[in-house]
Glutamate-1-semialdehyde 2,1-aminomutase (Desulforhopalus singaporensis), 430 residues
Amino acid sequence: MENTRSASLFENAKKVIPGGVNSPVRACRSVGCDPVFITGASGAKLTDADGKEYVDFVGSWGPMILGHSHPEIVKAVQDAAAQGTSFGAPTPTEIELAQMVVEAVPSIEKVRFVNSGTEATMSAVRLARGYTGKKMVVKFDGCYHGHADSFLVKAGSGVITLGIPGSPGVPDDIVKNTLSIPYNDCETLEKTLRDPALDIACVIVEPVAGNMGCVPPKKEFLEDLRRLTGELGIVLIFDEVITGFRLSYGGAQKYYGITPDMTCLGKIVGGGLPVGAYGGKKEIMDCIAPDGPVYQAGTLSGNPLAMAAGIATLKLLQAPGFYEQLEEKAAEYAGRLADISASTGIAVTLNRVGSIMTGFFTENEVVDFESAMTADTNRYGLHYRQMLSKGIYMAPSQFEVAFISAAQSGDDLEKAIKMTEWSFKKMLEK
Ligand code: PMP
């Protein structure tokens, strides 16, 4: 990548932005190369600063389920911008998006919009604590819920990728109120939740884990979570920042038929603009200021551009057969990848739920953080660099998911399959 415009941009970026990036995984360190700088995107394609085009499997880490620069979403944002970009006052559009969310997501009776997934999860946990008057938060190893202090305990995403064991700057006094236990482990779950010494306010879970790579929940895991939290008066929070409007129009809770008490959203609900949302039962949501004593606020919350993008996106997702077609496309793509693994003999454990998937370079079944860690990250790094060189843009870490979008054409996926086959064969030569 020497002598490219991306390389010189990266040098400039590093002088004024820590690590040259505004979010750590973008620096591509775990895949052993420097990042390409993106200047534009349309449909399933990204264009970098050197004019090279890529088929995109990152989709801005999830929001772009309809592809980039969808004309209806762009128009909605332009129309909104022409009316003013922020008022710091209530607007009709935030009611419209809130109504759409309440109709779509089974657990949400009332919803509050914020600006990121991190804000959504942080606020949801504060509210669960305020509502129950209890302290402890239970999360699962390898799940990522944004970068608020109380979640940086055995977290996924960039925290794994960079090998940061939690994070300096997070006081012990705060994380002592967070307990992280293994994903998909029903026995530990029951023992923990029933422990009378723990003052548990809530359990927060990614209903399909997406931040240690894609790890589907065992059926009984979600069922036990619902049954036990219900019985014990613990608030169950689904972090659907990735899965919301992705696995189905009603998210993972509709997909699996398990309704939590609260839900966090982000990514798709903002149509590619900065949005998060948290919602749930009226009785819980009414504890938020100004109706209740639990405080949460935001200068740009419910931003009119973001609301317009969200509304336009959700309307498009209501098209009959949308999720069925996405599932079919993703299933076929995953099947072809599995064939390449079988024919080349390069072991890949392919986990997929709907349009999110991860091919782990391991022979082991991947059901939790520990098994995910058996993946060969050097092999992933090599595969990543080879794919990038051939115009396929994948997540720059083994422990993230690939996102299939409605914009990817048969030709785009065919190209990715051909290049995967080429890359696997090339790895065998080494
Ligand atoms: N929760 C989950 C499940 C996520 O995947 C993410 C981000 N990828 C977040 C929360 C945090 O969202 P944000 O990056 O918008 O703060």
